[in-house]
Amino acid sequence: MEPVPAETKQYLAELFTSGQTAEQLSSDAERIRAAAEALGAAGEQIRYLDSLLLPDEETGFHLFAAEGPDVIERALREAGLEAERISPAIAATDTWTE
After folding, report:
1. Cβ-based burial of 94 (10 A; exposed 0-12, middle 13-18, buried ≥19)
2. What residues contact residue 52 under an 8 Å CB cut-off, 6+ apart?
3. Are 9 and 65 in contact (CB under 8 A)?
4. In whole angstroms, what is the distance from residue 28 CA to residue 44 CA?
5. DSSP letter string over the chain?
6. Backbone phi, then psi, for 62, in 5-degree steps?
7. Model-wide pTM > 0.85
8. Tens digit of each residue's pLDDT (9 = 90 or more) over 24-48
């Protein structure tokens, strides 16, 4: 995994996921990863990091390192998804940025 450029920050995208299963989360994550990689190959500063599902809350979270929320919105749109909200995030460790 390549290091995240200094000008990127971490963001958490929140999506409504009514009835989503772990398998569907994995499928979404693969489409998001592919979209982020394609945007990165085109020169955008974005990297997909991880996804979490809170089934009881009907909410999915997708973590990115990116130059800003606009490129994350593009990656999600290309993956066929739309975020309810994209917020700056701070990690307690550097697990995803190494």
Report:
1. exposed
2. 60, 61, 63
3. yes
4. 21
5. -PPPPTT-EEEEEEEE-TT--HHHHHHHHHHHHHHHHHHHHTT--EEEEEEEEEGGGTEEEEEEEES-HHHHHHHHHHTT---SEEEEE--SS-TTT-
6. -130, 125
7. yes
8. 999 999 999 999 999 999 999 999 9
